[in-house]
Amino acid sequence: MRATRDRGYNFCGRDQRLMLDVLKLVSYANLHNEEEERYKQQNLGLFSRS
């Protein structure tokens, strides 16, 4: 019984770490997309000005 509880706890810990990694990747991707959008808007501003 205790072995399965320990194994379950370790599994949960691994899942939480995995979720944190996924969240980091997602937030990094969102940040990158925002920067890309800003860059596109700046370029569009340059194009429309000329």
Detailed description of the structure:
The chain is an all-alpha fold and 50 residues long. It has one domain (1-50). The chain is 96% helix and 0% strand. The chain has one helix and no strands. The chain has one helix at residues 2-49. It is rod-shaped and about 65 Å long. The N and C termini lie far apart (73 Å). The model has no long low-confidence stretch (mean pLDDT 75).
How are the elements arranged and paired?
Layout: H1 2-49
Number of strands: 0
Helix content: over 70%
Please report which band the strand proportion falls in: under 5%, 5-15%, 15-25%, 25-35%, 35-45% or over 45%: under 5%
Number of helices: 1
In terms of quaternary structure, the protein is single chain
Q: Outline the biggest β-sheet.
A: none
Query: Mean pLDDT score, rounded?
Result: 75
Query: Could you say which overall geometry the principal axes of the C-alpha atoms support?
Result: rod-shaped
Radius of gyration: 22 Å
Q: How many independent structural domains? A: 1
Q: How far do the termini sit from each other?
A: 73 Å
Low-confidence stretches: none
Based on secondary structure, the structural category is mainly alpha
The secondary-structure element order is: H
Outline of this structure?
The chain has one domain (1-50). The chain has 50 residues and is an all-alpha fold. The chain has one helix spanning 2-49.
